[in-house]
Write a structure and sequence with these properties.
Elements: H1 9-19, E1 25-26, E2 29-31, H2 32-35, H3 38-49, E3 53-54, E4 58-60
Parallel strand pairs: 1-3, 2-4
C-alpha cells in the first residue's frame, strides 16, 4: 500500500492525472540542495517510469530555489 499526501489541490490534480492516463509534463527547478538528494532523483525516475514526461532538472544556486 502506498500513501500519498499532497499539500495543495493542484498537486492532487497532477497526481490523479497521471493515474488516469492524462499526459503530464514536469520541468523541475529546485535548489541545488534538493537536486543533489538521492531521494529527489529517485522520485523523478519513478515518475518517468509511470509515464510522466520530465525535463532536465535545473538547480538554482540559491538556497531558496528561485
Amino acid at each position: 500500500m502506498m500513501l500519498v499526501i499532497v499539500s495543495t489541490p493542484s498537486l492532487g490534480v497532477l497526481a490523479e492525472a497521471s493515474g488516469l492516463g492524462i499526459p503530464v509534463v514536469m520541468l523541475p527547478f529546485v535548489n541545488s540542495a534538493l537536486a543533489g538528494r538521492r531521494a529527489f532523483r529517485r522520485s523523478v525516475d519513478e515518475l518517468r517510469a509511470e509515464g510522466v514526461r520530465a525535463g532536465g532538472v535545473r538547480a538554482s544556486s540559491s538556497r531558496h530555489g528561485w
